[in-house]
Amino acid sequence: MDVTQAMNDPIINYQDACELWRAIEALDGSKDLELIDLWQRSQSPLRGGRHGAEARSQLVLKLKSRMVAKQIVDQMQPCFPDVEPSRALVLGDVIGTELQLVLDLEGSGHYFIVGKTGCGKTTLLASQAAQFIRRNVFTVLEDFKSEGRRLTNRFANVAVFRPDQMPINMLEPIGRSEIYWLSWFSEFGRAYNLRPETWTKVPEILARIEKAMKPSEPYPSLKDMERVLGILADKERRPTLQTVAQALASLNSLLGKTAFIRKAPSIEGRYAAVVHEYQGLPPRIQGFLAAINLLRLQLKSSSEGHNA
């Protein structure tokens, strides 16, 4: 007897339907609309029973796949090391268990979150940022999607800065100034496609300016540096300095008021968290600003003996 003939036998059809439904229940699929639809169609007498036979074949394949997956999950025994609550960053619950998945904050400072659009990556990061804020840990977020503002709905002391609102002089060094400026202009050269021989003399010029500064005198702003390089380019006939000045002019046009800042009070201690919002800027400028903020954060953390 072939499948379609068997499907037309009321007794065999009833027994088969019962077995399939028990299999669905065993896999916790009694509320799965797709499985229910296939199970109902598997009993169809249309087209001489062929319609029901096709639906049954699809249902059996799905049930077999889920059975294999369930066997793998049932055999898995999640084992996570104990982490002190004060050091634990909660990522979420482990499906099918009463365990929480946590990161040890005294372990690695870097991890990578991957997932398709809409799966919850941003929500997960917002949850982690909220945990840091509750622990009074100063938190900085680089926001490329304008979603960091959701923290302002949960916490009163969160500041959101667009690039033209950042209260910092990006040329004011942290740590050893020569290392800071070399790193700064390396990122700047990458963003504006400048050859190393074009920008490498600029940190030396900044070092000369620093030596001539009085102890309380602020560092030059980005706009000041644009003008200085333009003057030196004309006076010393150095076209490479003019190229850097033009690139700085392009950056300054995007930074607006931020480009004119020489000295600003530290934002740490004033806010629980700071969100740098970049949406609408060219990707290369987004990457540059994020890299500079990370550089400043890492150098400050290193100088204070913390992990960024």
Descriptive report:
Strand 1 (88-93) and strand 2 (100-104) form a beta hairpin. The chain has helices at residues 3-7, 10-26, 33-41, 50-75, 121-134, 177-191, 196-199, 202-212, 222-236, 239-255, 283-303; strands spanning 88-93, 100-104, 139-143, 158-161, 273-277. 50% of the residues lie in helices and 8% in strands. It is built from eleven helices and five strands; from the N terminus they run H-H-H-H-E-E-H-E-E-H-H-H-H-H-E-H. A three-stranded parallel sheet has the order 3-5-4, with helices on one face. Strands 1-2 form a two-stranded antiparallel sheet.
Task: Sum this structure up briefly.
This protein has about 300 residues and is mostly helical. The protein is about 50% helix and about 10% strand. The strands form 2 sheets. It has a 3-stranded parallel beta sheet with strand order 3-5-4, with helices on one face. It has a two-stranded antiparallel sheet with strand order 1-2.
Mean pLDDT figure:
84
Largest sheet: spatial strand order:
3-5-4
Shape: elongated
Approximate helicity band: 40-55%
Instruction: Tell me the span between the first and last alpha carbons.
Output: 71 Å
Task: Give the helix tally.
Answer: 11
C-alpha-based Rg, rounded: 31 Å
Q: What is the element string, with H for helices and E for strands?
A: HHHHEEHEEHHHHHEH
The residue ranges in which pLDDT falls below 50 over 5 or more consecutive positions are 1-7
SS class: mainly alpha
